[in-house]
Please model this.
Amino acid sequence: MSRAVAGVAVGQTHHASRRTDVSMPEMIREAIDRCLDSRGLRIKDVDAFVLGNMEMFEGINYVEQWMSDALGLAGKQVWKLNNGGTVGASTAITAYNLIASGYHDRVLCVGFEKQSEGSTQSAITTVGDPIWERAVMAGAIGNFAAMTSVYVNESGATAEQAAKVAVKARRNACNNEYAHLKLPNITVQEVLDSDMLAYPVRKLDMCPSSDGAAAVLFAAEDDAKKLSPRPAWVHAAVVAHDQQYMGDSPKRLAEMRSLIEARTKAYKIAGITDPVKELDVAEVYEPASYAELAMYECLAFCPKGGGGAHIDAGVSEMDGELPVNPSGGVLSTNPVGATALIRVAEATLQTMNEATGHQVPNVRRALATGYGGNAWTDLMILGTERL
Amino acid sequence: MSSWDTDEPLRLPQQITLNYRFAGGHHASKFFRALRGEQKILATKCPNGHVLLPPRPVCGLCNLPTNDNWVEVGPGASLAGYTVVYVPFIDPMTGVKRPVPYGFGLVRFDGCDTNVYHLIDETDPAKLRIGLPVEPVWKDESERTGSFADIRWFKPVEGAE
Model:
């Protein structure tokens, strides 16, 4: 019998393209301090840690050792995860499993990235299989753009509809103190006029490159109730991977197999049959505007092929029936190792009614996703009701 | 003025060069010998008929061993996805930025059930579409090293609509 687990505290840094004012350990302290201070806790009150980042981006192996004192983990246990875009959400799901199983009581998740310190685009070549894939890679953007052509071909989604996602994200970011890219006056036309990075993906369709860190504390049962006045109970925590090579999934984003698998399992666990009605907010990992449209479909927020119509109808806007990414999302803030944990952090804040400036009213259930690796998915559903 | 002359936090540069030598193993050795020497594309076939490229010991869909069952696919192919890239990206094999723009896409060899990424010899996106027939353009024998880059790129088949 597993224990009930909840997210009880959240902290994050002010994210920016360059946080040259702090070293990596100093940067993660900002997030940890904000997380623990919000509940009057100290690092001694934490039992174990899960740390996530992409080591090759900063060029440090043993990153957990170099962050040891900043985490306060001497004499305690730490798990280090390193699985790309999903890593932040994987720290949260690992914490959930550690606590649900009774192995630990309070686990602090920390995700971070300092993209400004290394060469992300060069390091990304190391995610390709050295024998089969590296010789003809075209970076994250080329990969995304080729996938996008499949989605556009399948769904008929237009550049204008994608641009609406890009506009929504940067405007929502203006209500989030910690977001990186805030563009209060951005227009659809401005997105359509921005530089073409890789057809059909334009500069403003794409996520930025950020420095930043996030921390989320998870706890169990009555302890969680003591720590937070309104804990974000974990209703479902599902991970789904895909096959080995980038060309194995026939439709890529358009029919993202791992996301469809994960949401099918998670909705079943959480008893959700009509996600738009039964979820109150979603924080999805949308690395590009078109990806969010595809994800509406794969998450069953709309029928297949309906992603464009879904944004046109305003369902995912702040005042829509199911707001998506009130925080501004990945399109506004992308410190890779923290990015998926920020989705979980924002879903936790929304459930706890503490998303200052961008709170959706009356959230009872929130969804968060992580995307990374070879189109992998991490998916969590959090809720106010203790299961 | 460097940061040493101000009160600004310092930034300390480093460059790291790491050298690797990867063992191709059975499947890559057989594949790249045929690719480099005979310009043949060899895929593995699982007991349920999935034809897999890159060739591999186990089918990821069926979790069954492919038992060294090889089939030749292509060289005819079609586009399963495409883009034209306008931002420079460092070529992992050379460390030099690849000149832009260039075509890039998911290529499906005839007779194969999976796609592989490769370069496309077309930089006008209006001339590319999913399903467009393409064919490999090979590097000269002296340039072929045993890599997917032994195919220089894929070009649209002349006269294809």
DSSP finds 16 helices and eleven strands in chain A. Chain A has a mean pLDDT of 95. The longest strand of chain A covers residues 211-220.
